[in-house]
């Protein structure tokens, strides 16, 4: 794994994020650089999608949507939660995440969510719900 490159990306564009060796990390690249990444942290039988980042020069090109589609097998492995920045809720809803109340979070995520929210971040708790098969 290319932790130094991934962490350099976070340091440049999202200093609060840092890849950890116990996470599952997905990256997207162009010909020469990592342009996006997302991490999944497994905790007590669930996973937290965290630290999704697209380099600013690549934003507005639907790369985050493509990254969520590319990671669907990972997302569906275990119940998958995320704490979406409020301006990104629609993005996650397109990927079948639904807004939940913070009291619906498992206790170990609720305390993390509270800590992040108390630090001034405008976050919305969400959980992935696999879409029902269409009745065609």
TrEMBL record:
The lineage of its organism: Bacteria, Pseudomonadati, Pseudomonadota, Gammaproteobacteria, Vibrionales. This is GNAT family N-acetyltransferase. CDD domains: NAT_SF. Coiled coil: none annotated. Gene3D superfamilies: 3.40.630.30. InterPro entries: Acyl_CoA_acyltransferase (IPR016181), GNAT_dom (IPR000182). Residues 1-115 form the N-acetyltransferase domain.
């Amino acid at each position: 794994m290319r932790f130094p490159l991934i962490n350099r990306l976070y340091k440049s564009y999202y200093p609060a994020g840092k890849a950890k060796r116990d996470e599952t990390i997905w990256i997207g690249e162009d010909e020469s650089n990592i342009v996006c990444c997302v991490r999944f942290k497994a905790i007590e039988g669930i996973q937290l999608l965290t630290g999704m980042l697209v380099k600013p020069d690549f934003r507005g090109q639907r790369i985050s949507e493509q990254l969520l589609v590319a990671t669907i097998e990972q997302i569906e492995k275990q119940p998958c939660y995320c704490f979406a920045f409020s301006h990104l809720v629609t993005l996650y809803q397109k990927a079948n995440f639904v807004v939940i109340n913070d009291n619906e979070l498992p206790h170990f995520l609720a305390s993390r969510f509270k800590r992040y929210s108390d630090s001034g971040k405008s976050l919305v708790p969400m959980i992935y719900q696999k879409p029902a098969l269409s009745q065609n």
